[in-house]
């Protein structure tokens, strides 16, 4: 479905089900150079088990028009505007990597409008290594290759993932290239990495939340290792939040490297 903003549309995958106002809604937010398709198992399952699903392409990415956000804060404002445009008063937010920072900041700002917050493959701070940041600007194809070496801990997609048995590095590279090419005005790779690198409000955002929080970490994640979530976890606990932590096998792409384990964590959390 398309969510209409003044002047442009944002695409949201609904898991093959029509919107039902009597059901709760969950919004999925992808990371840098990704789109709605990374959530295929989790979004389809929840859509067919009592939830409205909006797995969005962020503005300026893939099927969505509009300006691509240059910061986490700007992207959080876009999520706010999207919820208003869709007439949604209360939702759960699920974000991966850069999308987890966007979800965190949006949840802190939207307070009671967010029922649950799930942070998949998150970290705070989320620094980007200088060679990778530089390559993302001048040699994006080299940067994409670097990402796919460090963000994966398996060679083939498991049976419940999209394209089981396929070469995950090749599939991820193709997705990254396609999303990068979808916006000819902005280098989405460098802009997204810069936004991650520059975000400083994570601990304050965690303290400002009004909802329970789930962390889904990858045991073999080299991009956002489990230890890099500890500051956020401890801040949530100190500020009295209901915090859950689940560690799933494999690497940074928890949604399709460990799809069933990630889905199970989300199912239990969203009950």
Please tell me the overall pLDDT: 95
Backbone CA Rg:
17 Å
Helix share bin: 40-55%
Q: Provide the CATH topology.
A: Rossmann fold
Largest sheet: 8 strands, mixed
Order of helices and strands: EEEHEHEHEHHHHHEHEHH
Annotated CATH homologous superfamily: Alpha/Beta hydrolase fold, catalytic domain
What is the domain total for the residues? 1
SSE-based structural type: alpha/beta
Measure the end-to-end span.
25 Å
CATH class: Alpha Beta
> Uncertain regions: pLDDT < 50 for 5+ in a row?
none
How many alpha or pi helices?
11
Major β-sheet strand ordering: 1-2-4-3-5-6-7-8
Question: Overall 3D geometry?
Answer: globular
Describe the structure.
The chain is α/β, with parallel strands linked by helices and about 270 residues long. It has a single domain, classed as Rossmann fold (3-Layer(aba) Sandwich). Helix content is about 40%, strand content about 15%. It has eleven helices and eight strands. It has helices spanning about 40-45, 70-85, 100-110, 130-140, 140-150, 170-180, 190-200, 200-210, 230-240, 255, 260-270; strands at about 1-5, 10-15, 25-30, 50-55, 90-95, 115-120, 215-220, 245-250. The chain has an eight-stranded mixed sheet, with helices on both faces. Helix 9 links the parallel strand 7 and strand 8 (about 245-250). Helix 4 packs across helix 5, helix 4 packs antiparallel against helix 7 (about 190-200) and helix 8 (about 200-210) packs parallel to helix 9. The longest helix is centred in the first third of the chain and has 15 residues, at about 70-85. The two termini are about 25 Å apart.
């Amino acid at each position: 479905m398309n969510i209409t903003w003044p002047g442009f549309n944002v695409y949201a995958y609904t898991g093959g089900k029509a919107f039902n106002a009597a059901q709760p809604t969950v919004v999925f937010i992808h990371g840098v150079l990704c789109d709605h398709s990374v959530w295929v198992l989790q979004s389809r399952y929840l859509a067919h088990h009592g939830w409205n699903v909006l797995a969005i392409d962020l503005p300026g990415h893939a099927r969505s028009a509009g300006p691509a956000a240059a910061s986490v804060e700007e992207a959080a404002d876009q999520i706010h505007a999207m919820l208003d445009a869709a007439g949604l008063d209360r939702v759960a937010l699920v974000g991966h990597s850069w999308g987890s920072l966007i979800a965190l900041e949006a949840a802190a700002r939207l307070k009671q409008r967010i029922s649950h917050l799930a942070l998949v493959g998150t970290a705070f701070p989320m620094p980007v290594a200088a060679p990778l940041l530089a390559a993302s600007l001048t040699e994006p194809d080299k940067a994409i290759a670097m990402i796919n070496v460090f963000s994966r801990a398996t060679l083939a997609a498991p049976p419940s993932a999209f394209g089981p048995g396929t070469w995950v590095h090749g599939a991820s590279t193709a997705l990254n290239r396609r999303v990068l090419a979808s916006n000819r005005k902005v280098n989405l790779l460098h802009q997204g990495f810069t936004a991650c690198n520059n975000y400083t409000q994570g601990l304050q955002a965690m303290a400002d939340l009004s909802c329970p929080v789930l962390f889904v970490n990858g045991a073999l994640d080299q991009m956002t290792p489990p230890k890099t979530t500890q500051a956020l976890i401890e801040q949530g606990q100190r500020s009295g939040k209901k915090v859950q932590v689940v560690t799933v096998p494999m690497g940074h792409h928890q949604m399709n490297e460990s799809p069933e384990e990630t889905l199970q964590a989300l199912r239990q959390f969203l009950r």
